Amino acid sequence: MSFGAHGDLHSQSLGIALTASLIAVALVYWRGWYYLPSGYPNARRQWRLTAFVSGLFILWIAIASPLARMDHELLTVHMVQHLLIMTVAAPLILLGAPVITLLNGLPRPLVNRVVMPVLRCSSAHKLESTVSHPVSCWLASTAVVIAWHIPALFELALCSGWWHGGEQISFFAAGLLFWWPVVQPWPSATTWPQWTVPLYLFLATLPCDALSAFLTFCGRVVYPNYLNSHQVFSISPLRDQECAGPLMWVWVTFAYLAPAAAVTIRILSPTDVSPKIRILAKGIFGAT
User: Is the CB of residue 44 less than 8 Å from the CB of residue 104?
Assistant: First the structure.
């Protein structure tokens, strides 16, 4: 499939379907947030609604907006897509306490007869505890980032609309998994020491640092399809790649180490810091 055909498929079929899906999810979430019972005052806060809707909007920008149509022309745009999905959209959605709110927004018969029996079974609890463990989340997110930057898989995603959609879905799923131990939305429960969160975030920067360094200093175009793309803004494929590498390094450094610093401050100064800072940190990183 040519770049042009891929762009048409991406902007028309995937873009329309994603936009409709995100609107539907936003409506279900708003209904659930609005009718949340008084027993969930933390989830009922206005900023959680804002965070969730903002996360959906960022996801739309990354996948279905005009920006998405340039991902097969510039590696830098492709990198921005991945970073928006994993480090912006995913944590914002989790900050919105999505599980309890979406469940409350779905039709009650569907929740009572289908969803809740599944969530209450022992196998679901075991699966949730295994999948949401920091080691599992770190390994899954790291594997997704590294695998999709292997040239063969990267080229396949560029040339196939179906593979490209699968790539974006996997990045979003990996982003949700990665940020789950950090945000800990309901029904997540803390079973590991708080000091492991900054370590978890720091270790997550290392694979990204290695990948960004390789893209910046390898001295050759790693993904041949960009050699055949139009040179947008007169940027050569190699220079485009050399811009994408540092972008990844700087973006990931701030996205991971900023919350790590916030958690560290909360751990080391639980009583000395400003009450507003402690309340904010507890609301964001504490239990929903």
Answer: no
Contact (Cβ atoms closer than 8 angstroms) between residue 74 and residue 232 = yes
* Residue closest to 151 by CA, chosen among 66, 241, 61: 241
Report the alpha-carbon distance of residue 288 to residue 275 in Å, rounded.
19
Residues listed for the chain: 288
Q: How far apart are the C-alpha atoms of 190 and 209, rounded to whole Å?
A: 28
Q: Is 45 helix (H, G, I), strand (E, B) or coil?
A: coil
Query: Structure tokens of 233?
Result: 């803004």
CA dist., res. 112 & res. 228, Å (int): 54
Mean pLDDT of 149-169: 89
* Highest-confidence segment of 31-40, 86-95, 102-111, 235-244: 86-95
Instruction: Give the three-state DSSP class for 256.
Output: helix
Residue 255, C-beta contacts closer than 8 angstroms, at least 6 positions apart: 83, 87, 88
* CA gap 25, 130 in Å, rounded: 26
